[in-house]
Amino acid sequence: MFEQAHQRFGHLDVVVSNAGINRENLLEDSYDPATGRLQKPDLKNLEVNLVAHVYFVKCAVHYFEKSPPPHTSSPRTHQIVLTGSAASYIDTPPLYQYCAAKTGVLGLMRSLRTQLPRRNITINMIAPWMTVTPMLPAAIKDLWGHLPANTPEGVARALLLPAVDQSINGKAFFIAGNHMVELEDKIHESQPSWMGEKLSEDVDEGQRRLIPVGINPDK
C-alpha cells in the first residue's frame, strides 16, 4: 500500500493508522482435539491492534524519507497519526488484549515523539471513547444509554487536527461525544501531585539527559 501510494504520488505527507478489530477469548480454554492439551490464546487482536501499528510506523518513516524535498527553502514535514483508544488509558474489561494493545500504541507514540522530529516527522495519537460503529454489540449500546458517544464522523474530524497541524507532536487526544481533550500535557502537569515533587523533578531530569542521545539499554 505504501509503495503504491509513493509510486503514484511521488511522496507521502500524512499517514493515519486506523485498522482495528475486537475479538477476545483470553479467559476461554480451548483444547487440541488430538492431544487434549491447552491451546495458546488467539493473538489476532494484538497482531492487528498493536503489531500492525509497528509495521505501519516502519513503512511510514521509510517512505517519508524517500520523498523528494519540497520546492521551498523549508524542509518537508510529515505527520503520523495513530488510532489508540480510551483503553490506552483506562481499564476496559472484558477487552483484555484490546486494552493491552491500545496501551502499547500509546507507548509506541510516546517512545517515538522525541525521536521522529529529528527526521521532520510528527507523531500523535487519538483515543476515542465509546464510538457507535457496526463493531459495537447492541447490548453494549443499550447499556451505554445516554452517556456521550462518538460517531465515526466525529472521530474522523478529530483525526484531522494532528494530521494537518505540523506544530502538534507527541499529543494524545481523548475523544468523547465528538469532543476532544488533550491528555499528555495534563498528565505531565499533574505529575508532581501523584509522583511527589522531588521524584518528579528527578524523573524529568533523567529523561532530559537520556532522550537526546537515544540510549539503547541493550547496547
Automatic annotation (TrEMBL):
Pfam families: adh_short (PF00106). The keyword Cell membrane does not apply. Keywords: NADP, Oxidoreductase. The lineage of its organism: Eukaryota, Fungi, Dikarya, Ascomycota, Pezizomycotina. Transmembrane segments: none annotated. This is 3-oxoacyl-[acyl-carrier protein] reductase. Belongs to the short-chain dehydrogenases/reductases (SDR) family. GO terms for molecular function: oxidoreductase activity. The keyword Oxidoreductase applies. SUPFAM superfamilies: NAD(P)-binding Rossmann-fold domains.
